[in-house]
Design brief:
By secondary structure, this protein is α+β, with helices and mostly antiparallel strands. The chain contains seven helices and eight strands. It has a five-stranded antiparallel sheet. α2 links the parallel β7 and β8. α1 packs across α2. It is flat.
Length: 239
Amino acid sequence: MAWVVGIRFKPAGKIYYFDSGDMDLKAGDTVVVETVRGIEYGYVVMGKRQLSDDQLVLPLKKVIRKATEEDEQTYLSNRAKEASALDICKEKVREHGLPMRLIDVEYTFDRGKIIFYFTAENRVDFRELVKDLASIFKTRIELRQIGVRDEAKMIGGIGTCGRVLCCTQFLGEFEPVSIRMAKEQNLSLNPTKISGVCGRLMCCLKYESDQYDEQKQSGGAKRGENDRRAKNTNPGAGA
């Protein structure tokens, strides 16, 4: 068992657990933690609680400290630099004639790395681009290819329901969605009716899928029981 807090680094991002140690942390606090990417600034979204080892990915990293005013200023400064970095990278992509579309950029908190997110139809040889960017920003550069769902999550938008996209509001991870879910809910199988702005099946098809499965199972069990009762009442019915 361990005392942990759940931390996000982006709105609606995945929740990661960290060892809270002796710190009294609650939802809404900002913290500085060590991750595999380096030192990061995050938001506590799940207050201190005790979880068993099988619920965690061990070993846990510890929360370094509650964020200070200086930490907050560093975080805001990084966010301000990102727009300029994205423009510079777009210009370099054009210069190299690379078939890729830049979506977002992110500075790590300690500015030890800049991560550029992009989409592309195929694999892209961006080695020369990385060299150019490294010479400009004087830090480590990472280019990360993402899928269309991740692109929609980063950019945001309005779904066919008229509401802000679920993935930008609360979905921490994408769960598998299949055409079977639409069939079980008696929805139109017209792709334009059941696809999201990303072009993939809408994530909300998954929301009620478990309930439909339960109803299907309970309905089958009930029919089976009714058939047995009918057969017991009229033994010759099955002859």
